[in-house]
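Every protein is a chain of amino acids, and every chain bends into a shape of its own. The protein below has been through that process, and both of its lines are reproduced in full.
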Amino acid sequence: MVADGTVSFGSPANLAAPVLDTGSFSLTCTLSVHYNIGLGTGQNSASVTTRRMQIGTGPSLYLTYSLFLDSGRTTNWGLTSPNVVTGNGNGNPQNFSVYGKLDAQTTSGAGAYSDTVQIVVSY
């Protein structure tokens, strides 16, 4: 069972510099079952390395962002090895951090941007 989470970049006043945030989710897996956890492309992207949030209403405006496995934000979290989390279930909820970075943007429109990314668990 996966309990989803959120990475929220808030309402930054200035998008000339990257904005960082950390979110989390949990996975409960049967004792000793080996798993892999990947993160999908999102609703507005063709690749896990080019994720985009779209404005909720109005024209097709996007903000680009990335999701990482590590707090240094160097390893993109994707769908294939080595860009997935692997482990073994212990029968209890296990928590996982997702490190987000909203890229510096040169143009965007004001509004609420969002995206939904699928958590993919294979075992």
Notes: Strands lie at 2-3, 19-28, 34-39, 51-55, 62-68, 85-88, 93-102, 113-114, 119-122.
